[in-house]
Amino acid sequence: MTRRIAFEGIDNFRDFGDYAAGPRRLKAGLLYRSAGHGGATDADLEKLAAMNLAVIVDLRRANERERQPSRRWPSFDARVIDNDIGQEAADEWLTFIQGSDLTAASFHAYMMEYYRKAPLQQRHLDLYTRYFQALAETEGAILIHCAAGKDRTGIACALTHHITGVHDDDIVEDYLLTNDTARLEKRLPTIREVIRESTGRVASDDALMVAMRVEPEYLDESFRVMREAYGSLDGYLDEALGLSAETRAKIHDRLLA
Asked: What local confidence, expressed as pLDDT, does residue 118 receive?
């Protein structure tokens, strides 16, 4: 299966279904993930309209959505899940890069701290809870995205794989598909210019690649925090996100062949 799906103006678009899940298998064409849709072309919108999307989960903060509103197709009727919680920390990335030495080490440390905090932040608890409820209750495909489609989205997709029984190795493999070298190199000039405009300084290509990539240890850190706080990933899903046995069964029925 070709997981990456090419769009003209939407980055990092993938189908994260069709993995073995114990004795069963995740269906293809029901679970999608991507970066933001603000740059979608008309051709992209036509392609999205044909994907039978019932729910779009937008994990971006309100300021991100305002800065780059998602484009929609004319007959758009999908449910959109988002929230405005946590806007007091909306500028954390800008604050970091303005005070950072912009080295690869500083970007790596920032990402580790981000993944350490993300699972317990109220805005993510709300969004992930509503996402899993939608998985259980909605007919049709679900698309989950943030700005780059790698961190907030990556955690949600990994948890989806976990509850459906996807093997840990496949969970990590899917997460690391973000690290498409050709795609990242194509994005380098844009990221370089964004940081230059924000800081007046130029980061090295090596440092920028660290900022754009994901690493297994990032996801491991989020999972470690969940286990530490709730005893296990299942404890996090049950207690933090309210994922009952009944909801899990509905998700299994919907997603597993």
From this structure: 97
